Amino acid sequence: MPEAARQLDNPLVPALATVQAVRPETAAGDVRTFQVTLDEGPVFPYLPGQCAMLSVLGVGESMISITSSPTRPDFLEFSVKNAGRVTGALHELGEGARIGVRGPYGNHFPLELLRGKNLVFVGGGIGLAPLRSLISYCLDHRADYGQVDIVYGARSPVDLCFKEDLFERWPAVENTFVHVTVDRGDGSWQGPVGFVPAYVEQVAPSSRDAVAITCGPPIMIKFVLAALEKLGFTDEQVVTTLELKMQCGVGICGRCNIGPKYVCLDGPVFTLAELKKLPQEF
Amino acid sequence: MNALAVEERKAVRLADIRPVLERLAAGGKLVAPVAEAGGFAFRRVGQAEKVRLDFYNTAESPKDLFFPQSEVLFSYDAAGIAVPEPAGEQVLLGIRPCDLAALPLLDRVFGEGPFRDPGYLARRERTVLVAVACDRPRASCFCTSFGLSPGHVAGADMVLYPDEGGYLVRAQTEAGEALMAEWPGEAVAPGEAEAVAARYRSMETPLGRRIRLEGVAEALDGMFDHPMWEQIAARCLSCGICTYTCPTCHCFQLTDEAKGEAGKRVRCWDSCMFPEFTRMAGGHNPRPDKKARVRQRFMHKLNYFVRRWEEYLCVGCGRCVESCPVGLDIAYVIEAVQGVTARA
Amino acid sequence: MRSEAVRAAARRLLEEGKVVRFLGHAPGFDPTSPFPQLITRAEEAERLVLDHFCAPNLAKYLLDYETQEGVTAVVLKGCDALGLARLLADHRVARDRVWVVGLPCPGMLDRDKAAALLPGVQEARAEGDEFVLTGAGGERRVAAGQVLLDRCLVCAVPTPDDADELLGEPVPGRPVPREEDAAVAALEAMTSAERKAYWTEQFSRCIRCMACRNVCPACNCRSCCFDSEEPRWLSRVTDGPAQEMFHFVRALHVAGRCVDCHECERVCPMDIPLMKLNHKLLQDVEELFELERAFVPREVEPLGIYRPDDPEEFA
Q: Which of B113, B125, B292 lies at the smallest CB-CB distance from A2?
């Protein structure tokens, strides 16, 4: 019989947390970033790529990637796209609101694999959120990495996320290059126009001693992977993340498995080589 | 913990089990099989005469006693979050070998992974398991295919062996011995008790249904894209009977019930057979059709779980055989996999 | 019973190209629970069976082929054909895309009753008003009334009236004694508190497997409010009011549309007497709308029309 369980905390019960700040992330208004602190104790330890379950009590939970970096441990940040019941309810919340947080869940970006390498980040839309955690982490340990290229795109200029990072913070760091495109421009947009995959080919980062990390809508990832292959990236040199419906976060509830792998435990970060070994059911 | 071997534990004969049932029922902690419309069910019992030890397998497995279909995880209000008190003690009388064998599988899921479920573990710890050796297998039973038998009683605190018109009762743990401390009945020599136990262990299910399991998990490694799934899925009604009556299925959803400023979060059973199960907020569904869902269910039981825990997630209780309205049960699927391997 | 006939029909229809797929029954792991079998090639016809255990209604499977090319042949009993009529009336299936192979049905056996009469039963054959069960336990002769499904005991429409071909001579309907009237009368005789207690007790057993809904030919909506998660109309919590909510909403949704096929009751693993509810509503529809045989689907249903001059001000 299992040993005494009374003292165990239930992993499915969230810790109470307070929204300290809310930042509209896109001009379109469908993405907001929530800065959150836990009501009791400091922020839990985590690594870039990990997620947490956010609760709006009375509405439900949603798994959201942590977009802040563990190198800045005073708070957690979550960038949330309004896409459903729970995320819609989150968008209603302002500063001081009480939410629930549990986590961190999942694996994390393979920091050992990245160390000493040139890094190519390829993000689309809200897909920049998990990458942002890793980018901040790497730039905070700048000496550990080679050249950093960040290729990012959104549907239109109003859909661009993390503009302060993209246009001010990151380009200011040495040996770090940011390339931003939009699918469709508008009157004010001066930058490149075109889909992310084609733009990656145009930017043409070298695959030599490099690892590419990509995150975005499934259709974008599909074509980005093809573009990276053309640029000479092997399956072991490409890292991506998966997003599936999750409810427990602890590998039990049965939704997020792809074959025997659970995205909430064994993911969300996979190398392309690992993904190719899984049943194509995601 | 005193570590007596089962052979040295107390065993008695009860010509009449009623006084014992009365004593248990009076304690208010008894859960036992009772007759219900069309079959049997494990229910909390206050009156001994309701207990039906002549039951055949209940429509629902007793997993609900450990992993309730609806379980409040916490309630909340303006003051904060409150977690309910852990469950009280209970005596589960009449659990059969198949359902008993399902518990270690659930223990792995809820107690041995990276996260442990305190509610489940508390209920396991506080339940005294009184097994009954299976003297009423049904035509649908195939527990022997999983290395079990009508006498497979590992994990029970105490076992009732129907014997000579009454019961031979044998303690297997300290908790079992404590429960039977004040029971009437005439003591039985260890050799005699072991002989009865051995007789049950060597029994076949009467219809002798045996399914060959060798190589099934391995064969399924390469069968994700096999056309077999299309055929199998064509029969499925997409209901959740198989998953809900199964003693080992454990998918769930979390749902919030709010009333004004207060509310609760409840964990409810869910089923991989339901279309909405994996549908994401944006509409994408990685298991969009019956084929994908049927495949998930059987792959989980016969392959994915094996890859993670080195055991099949099935104990051959036969409930899905009994209750699938369209005869699409796991035994058939195992045979189908064997058929594919045989043809290959 | 009619296995050879159904195989011949399937072979012929697929060979002639009249249909591209054929939905029948095949032996399951347990011969007393054959399952739906889809075949697409004439040589697969050998798999088919048609015996006294082929209770499942195949009509609803036609929805699976809604968006696929070609005509689907389907084996239907009289009760199943009412299910098809429901799908046709609701415009979920087009008649010219279905080829009905009708079985004049001598009645289907209740496998639980059969297993209770002869444990290990594997086969059954009809002999007059009796059935001979055979299996590992030997052979046993039982009266039809002991072993037929309840619904077959009172079947008014054993022969499909809209079949493209029939596997055998039409079978006359049994005079319907309307036993269900007694059950409904008993419910009506209860005080409302008693009735509430009765249904609460029945529904407390419900495990919400959704089999009743999934098998029901009247529950053919493209998406169902019970499944919706955004918004979530129905809580999954099984120890609260959602149990009654589920059953009453469903019963009212199929009121005036139920074809009286009893499939919901047959599939219910918890033996909830769902047809009592459906029969009550069928009777109400018959009485309130002066309708005979309310279970026969019509294009326009009593509860499916709106008229500005409705005598009920609530309408």
A: B125
